[in-house]
Every structure is written in C-alpha cells, then in structure tokens.
Amino acid sequence: MSSNASDVLRLLPRPVPRDDDRRLLLFAIRRIAAFGLGFRRPLILVRALMAELSRIAAHRILVAPCCCPRMTLAEAALIDAVAMADRDARAAHRRLSAMLGVGNCLGALASAQALGQAFADLGRPLFGDGD
C-alpha cells in the first residue's frame, strides 16, 4: 500500500454509511463544516427559499438525491437564479417563474437574492456559467 493510500485510510478509516438517511446526514455535516460557523445564515436562507418555492409552485419541483452526479432541470434553474439574482433580478425572476409555473414569484426572488448574497459574504460568490 502506498504512503498516500495509508494516509487516506488513517484519516478516513470508516466507509460511508450504506443507509441512505445516514449518508444524507453525513453529507449535511460535511456541507456545514465546509462553511464553518458562518454556514448558519445560508442554511436558514436555503430553508426559507425552499419553503417559499414549495408554497407557490404550480407543480412538483424535481430534486435529485445528493449522490446524483447530475442535476434536474429544476435544480439547474434554481442554482442559476440564485447565482444571477443580484446581478439580473429580472432574468432570475423569469427563470424562477418558468421553473415554478407561476407568473409572479417576488418572494422567491427576494429569498434567492438573500441566499446569493450570503454565499458572497462568506467568500463563496456564485460566479461562472454553472457548468
């Protein structure tokens, strides 16, 4: 066994849980740890955004499991909307409206703007083209 492989096994001695719910908990712990204590604000804002989306959506919003290496169209639209909400609120509103199947979603837009700003404030701005 190489030195690198033994270092990995020393640092990560246990396999990830086989149970889906335990694996989800591990994923959540790791995501929160990635942001440190500052993650509280984005976490609360994600919850608020998801609650608003579910409240106003005209149809189901398809969200894939955490382990999926690809995104649904709804997930991609949501991430793009959050990333552009501060720079181009009209485009973000159009994207959210189309995803939700509604004509007006200003509450969701405001939540998306707040979430994008929270990421930026933590030094993790959502730039790029999303790919």
Model description:
It holds the Pfam family DUF6628. InterPro entries: DUF6628 (IPR046736). This protein is mainly α. The chain has helices spanning 3-11, 20-35, 40-56, 73-84, 89-100, 106-121. The N and C termini lie far apart (36 Å). Helix content is 63%, strand content 0%. Helix 3 packs antiparallel against helix 6 and helix 4 (73-84) packs across helix 6. The protein has a domain at 37-121.
Describe how the helices and strands are arranged.
Elements: H1 3-11, H2 20-35, H3 40-56, H4 73-84, H5 89-100, H6 106-121
Pfam family, one: DUF6628
InterPro entries: DUF6628
Would you tell me the structural class of the helices and strands? mainly alpha
Mean pLDDT: 87
Estimated radius of gyration: 17 Å
Dominant shape: elongated
Percent of residues in beta strands? under 5%
Unreliable stretches: none
Distance between the first and last residues' Cα: 36 Å
Q: List SSEs in N-to-C order.
A: HHHHHH
Number of helices: 6
Number of β-strand runs:
0
**Helix percent band:** 55-70%
The protein's oligomeric status is: single chain
Largest sheet descriptor: none
Question: Descriptors for this entry?
Answer:
single chain; 131 residues; mainly alpha; elongated; DUF6628
Provide a compact summary of the structure.
The chain is mostly helical. It has helices spanning 3-11, 20-35, 40-56, 73-84, 89-100, 106-121.
